[in-house]
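seq:
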Amino acid sequence: MEIALNRSARSNVNSVMEIMEARYPGDWRIEDNALYKGDMLISGSEALPDFLGKLCEGHVTFFYG
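struct:
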């Protein structure tokens, strides 16, 4: 069971990263104490993590620092 859960978690992370790269090309960076992916401000966004969470049937949170 643990192996299956780990595979599922890895798959979800990979999917989220692929979606982020396709939608928001560019580097991840911290600017003025805020997280960006390309030109997209990630910090403070609720819609983006909610959308990604629905796609992977889980929860998505972006951490930095």
